[in-house]
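We were asked to recover a plausible sequence for a given structure. The inputs and outputs are reproduced exactly as logged, with field labels preserved.

PROBLEM: sequence recovery
POSITIONS: 339
GIVEN STRUCTURE:
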């Protein structure tokens, strides 16, 4: 069973500039406990939950959804601190959202989604198609799917795939082509050496033109293949997730690098398009660059934040190449050297 089979498609989302008071009303009106924050392209860049709105200190963690949503009803007395927070006009979604976002693709197995929820201690994951959010899978969705599967087994088989075939037609040209023969004119007697020299020069020029045309087609095909490769890599980085075994493997290789005297290790290389801003924040070293991460890069960042950062490891992102003057691939580096 895939994410597309269990996800909630009617997604309520907010923009980064949505005031948190409006977010509280959206949560109440739609009966949900969190909403994704999406950019202009529809890509998720964060999540805002009730916990983000009411705070996460010791006392606030005891608050429950029913309590604070009920208290938002007209005529009720609101907690003074909470009321001040939701009425603060300067506070918006971007100020309180949790980022980066752990997401899944439509083809992600529900067992993998369940593992993501547990590994990252989250309650829901956005489901993406071509980088845009098309649904959300929550723990409740998984429980409901499990109940339906047990009560009414189904055997759904969807045929997916297809073959992309193409053919390149070549046009044969006669090496010695005489223009006067094409229009029916009789050849004029000329010295053989001069005639052959003129014909060969013209044909060679045509050969050069043919070569240049083939080179142009080849470069265009390479460009298309590279673009398709980037799209496939992006889909892979969204669809595939870092497993516990994969994480242990990365840590093992990092240890080997330290044994060889290295001070850092590249955990992941990924296209800049995986970032919600195509790598701009990383390129200019903005402090909020982690919020732009998506897919496997976001999961690695969260793993580092939860497990390695408290133990003195640092994490950095760097642009590795600039094809055409724009950010290309990005490297996510784990380091252990002291500053």
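RECOVERED SEQUENCE:
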């Amino acid at each position: 069973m895939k994410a597309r089979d269990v996800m909630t498609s009617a997604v309520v989302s907010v923009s980064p500039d949505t005031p948190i008071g409006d977010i509280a009303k959206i949560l109440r009106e739609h009966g949900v406990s969190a909403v994704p924050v999406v950019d202009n392209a529809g890509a998720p860049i964060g999540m805002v939950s009730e916990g983000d709105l009411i705070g996460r200190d010791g006392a606030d963690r005891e608050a429950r959804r029913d309590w604070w949503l009920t208290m938002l009803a007209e005529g009720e007395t609101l907690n003074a601190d909470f009321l001040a927070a939701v009425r603060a006009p300067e506070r918006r979604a971007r100020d309180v959202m949790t980022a980066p976002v752990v997401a899944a693709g439509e083809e992600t197995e529900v067992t993998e989604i369940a593992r993501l929820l547990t590994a990252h201690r989250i309650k829901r994951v956005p489901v993406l198609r071509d980088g845009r959010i098309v649904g959300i899978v929550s723990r409740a969705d998984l429980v409901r799917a499990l109940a339906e599967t047990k009560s009414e087994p189904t055997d759904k088989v969807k045929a997916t795939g297809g073959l992309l075939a193409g053919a390149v037609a070549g046009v044969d040209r006669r090496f010695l082509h005489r223009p006067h023969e094409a229009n029916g004119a009789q050849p004029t007697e000329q010295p053989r050496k001069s005639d052959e020299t003129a014909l060969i020069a013209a044909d060679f020029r045509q050969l050069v033109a043919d070569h240049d045309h083939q080179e142009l087609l080849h470069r265009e095909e390479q460009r298309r293949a590279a673009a398709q490769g980037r799209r496939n890599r992006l889909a892979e980085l969204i669809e595939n997730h870092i497993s516990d075994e994969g994480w242990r493997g990365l840590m093992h290789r990092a240890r080997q690098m330290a044994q060889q005297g290295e001070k850092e290790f590249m955990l992941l290389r990924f296209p800049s398009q995986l970032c919600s801003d195509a790598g701009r924040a990383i390129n200019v070293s903005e402090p909020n660059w982690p919020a732009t991460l998506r897919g496997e890069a976001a999961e690695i960042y969260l793993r580092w934040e939860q497990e390695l950062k408290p133990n003195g490891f640092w994490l950095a992102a760097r642009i590795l190449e600039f094809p055409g003057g724009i950010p290309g691939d990005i490297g996510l580096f784990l380091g252990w050297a002291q500053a």
